[in-house]
Amino acid sequence: MTEPETAEIETPRGPARVTRHRAATPVGLLLLGHGAGGGIAAPDLVAATGAAVAAGWDVGLVEQPYRVAGKRAPAPAGHLDEAWLAVVDAVRDGLPLVTGGRSSGARVACRTAAAVGAAAVLCLAFPLVPPGKPERTRQPELDGAGAPVLVVQGRNDRFGVPEDGPDRRVVLLDGDHGLKKDRAALESAVGDWLTGLGAT
User: Fold this and answer.
1) How far is CA 160 from the centre of its chain?
2) What is the arrangement of strands in the sheet containing 16-21, beginning at the earlier edge strand?
3) Dihedral, CA atoms, 12, 148, 114, 59, nearest 10 degrees?
4) For residues 69 and 26, what is the distance between their CA atoms, to the nearest angstrom?
5) How far apart are CA 176 and CA 114, in angstroms?
6) Opening angle at CA 177, ends 14 and 102, nearest 5
7) Position 199 pLDDT exceeds 70
8) DSSP secondary structure, 59-125, as one string
C-alpha cells in the first residue's frame, strides 16, 4: 500500500477525519467506521483495509468527531449518523461505494446505507445485542440496510452472533468481539467478497 492521505472534514457535529488508503487502479471506495471506544487502528479494521486495497478498493477510515476531539465516550446514534452522512457526501467521488465498520461503526453504516446509496455494507463484529440484554436486539438495523451485507463475526462474541438472511452472509471466525484471533481468515473473507462486488 502507498502512504495514506489524511484529511479533516467538517460535519454538523464537528470535524471528522478520514485516512484514505489508495489502490493502484480502484474499482470502488470502501468507507469504514470505528467502534464506540476504539479507533481506526483496531486489528480487524487494519486487516480489512489491507485486504480491500489488495482487492483493488480505495479505503477511507473514518474517525467520528468525538474521537477527533479526544473524547472516548461515543456520541448519540443520531449524531454519529449525521456526521457519517456529511463525511460520505464529502469524500464520494463517483466510484461504487461500500460502507461499513466495526461494532458501533457497523451499526452506523447499516442505518445510513440506504440514505447514501451504498452498494453493499461490511459489518465487522456487529453488536447484535448488549451483553445480558437479549431483548434489546439491533436486528432491525441489519435487516434495514437495504443492500447486500457481509458480517464477519467471532463465534464467541459476547454481543451475539447474527444469522444469515436475505442479502446477508455471515462468516464466523474463531475468536470474540475483537476479531484478533484469525487475521488470515478475516482478510480472505473481506477480500473475496469485495472482489466479487467489483466484478459485478
Assistant:
1) 18
2) 5-9, 16-21, 57-63, 28-33, 97-102, 120-124, 149-154, 168-173
3) 30
4) 31
5) 29
6) 30
7) no
8) EEEEEPHHHHTT--SPPPHHHHHHHHHHHHHHH--SS-EEEEEETHHHHHHHHHHHHHT-SEEEEES
Give the three-class secondary structure for 192: helix
How many domains, the chain?
1
SS3 state at 41: coil
Digit-coded pLDDT (tens) for 128-149: 999 888 889 999 999 999 999 9
Q: Confirm if 104 and 128 have CB atoms less than 8 A apart.
A: no
76/186 Cα distance (integer angstroms)? 29
Report how far residue 35's alpha carbon sits from residue 50's, in angstroms, rounded to the nearest whole number.
18
Per-residue buried b or exposed e for 49-70, using 16+ beta carbons within 10 Å of the residue's own CB: bbbbbebbbbbbbbbbbbbbee
Contact between 27 and 59 under an 8 Å Cβ cutoff? The reply is no
Which residue range is the domain that position 78 belongs to? 5-198
Compute CA 76 distance to the chain's CA centroid, rounded to the nearest angstrom: 18
Which residue type does 144 have? G
For the stretch 64-96, pLDDT in tens is 999 999 998 899 999 999 999 999 999 999 999
* Residue 111 confidence (pLDDT): 98
Rounded average pLDDT over 165-190: 96
Find the CATH number of the domain harbouring 131. 3.40.50.1820
